Amino acid sequence: MQSYTSILKHVGNTPQILLSSPGDRVALYAKLEWFNPFGSLKDRAALWMIKDAENRKILKRGQTILLEPTSGNTGIALAGIAKALGYEAELIIPSKASEETKTLIRRIGAKLLETEDDLCPRAGPGTDQCIALANAIIKAHPERYVMLNQYANESNFYAHFEGTGPEIWGSLRDVTHFIAGVGTGGTLTGVAAYLKKKNPYVKVIGVQPQRAHHIQGLRNLEESAAPELLRRRIELIDEWVKVSDGEAFNAVKTLAYTKALFVGPSSGAVYAAAQKVAEKLNSGRLVLMFADDGRKFWSLYDEFKVFTREEFNYYSRYAKHLPANPLLYEEPLRTRLKMES
Ligand SMILES: Cc1ncc(COP(=O)(O)O)c(C=O)c1O
């Protein structure tokens, strides 16, 4: 199927850019994950999990509905990739997720169910409405629904062990630190396992937002139990750095004002954490995972006065390294996918 190959081709191999100035003591590189076709690092996990389920022959085109609790980006990625491959998707999302995220998921054509959970679905037993709702739906219709369960699915780990990790190593053999946030832990553990296999001295830093945070996609591990996927390999994380909402939003502004980069809030949190790490180093080459760009965060950036409407519009149009993401922001998605299949 042509749409499969064309989506496949565009997932991964994202650009890695130098953020610091040449000659700086500590060099910071950012991996720009919004270059994925559905706009975030989660395209990788979604594609790997669907490919694996296809290999295990548990999906039926035209029949299977992929049901997944998600805080946003996995929803967008699963909705888009499922659509391209001929599956339906139903996403269960906390109502606190941004309106723009919900609009994008609906525009792609997936069904959206909302629950009153924290921003990042809790993965611990019995605490989380959206996981409970997903389990109830599957129990009632086991023949129609499949839950890939990003919180425990090994393919989420392998997307980064086989994709992101080798990409980073391939472009920077002397990487000293890898810094990323945690939703499921797939990114952090997958990249960590690969880089440490290549060089056991690479340090892996996990970024955690404050309690009751507003950083869509990230998890505070005091508030919410570590997901199964993270627990399996938690020893790979050398250090955790905490970042407040204010620090993350300031970093979002700094990146826009000084580097003309328009990032989402989790990239701001990662950049703020990297500054804290870099302060303690004499030298190093740090790779930062920038999960998504700022375009779907107007309501958040407005609420927390990160940008004025004029600034937001300006950076949405003129920021550096901001691809058109035509599957999300331009032509209607359905037309585009139909044309490719
Ligand atoms: C914006 C954002 N940043 C970071 C992450 C962390 O990714 P992972 O689930 O691989 O831990 C996510 C995941 O949902 C995300 O949406």
Task: Describe it.
- The chain is of the alpha/beta class and 341 residues long.
- The chain has two domains: 192 residues, Rossmann fold (3-Layer(aba) Sandwich), CATH 3.40.50.1100; 108 residues, Rossmann fold, CATH 3.40.50.1100.
- A six-stranded mixed sheet has the order 1-2-10-7-8-9. Strands 5-4-3-6 form a four-stranded parallel sheet, sandwiched between helices.
- The longest helix is centred in the middle third of the chain and has 18 residues.
- The mean pLDDT is 90.
- Pyridoxal-5'-phosphate binds next to helix 3 and helix 7.
Question: Any descriptors?
Answer:
binds pyridoxal-5'-phosphate; 45% helix; single chain; 2 domains; alpha/beta; 341 residues; Rossmann fold
Task: Break the fold down into its secondary structure elements and pairings.
Elements: H1 2-10, E1 16-18, E2 26-32, H2 42-55, E3 65-69, H3 73-85, E4 88-94, H4 99-108, E5 111-115, H5 129-140, E6 145-146, H6 154-171, E7 177-181, H7 186-198, E8 203-209, H8 228-232, E9 239-243, H9 245-259, H10 265-279, E10 284-290, H11 298-303, H12 309-318, H13 326-329, H14 333-340
Bound molecules: pyridoxal-5'-phosphate.
In short, what is this structure?
The protein is of the alpha/beta class and 341 residues long. It has helices at 2-10, 42-55, 73-85, 99-108, 129-140, 154-171, 186-198, 228-232, 245-259, 265-279, 298-303, 309-318, 326-329, 333-340, and strands spanning 16-18, 26-32, 65-69, 88-94, 111-115, 145-146, 177-181, 203-209, 239-243, 284-290.
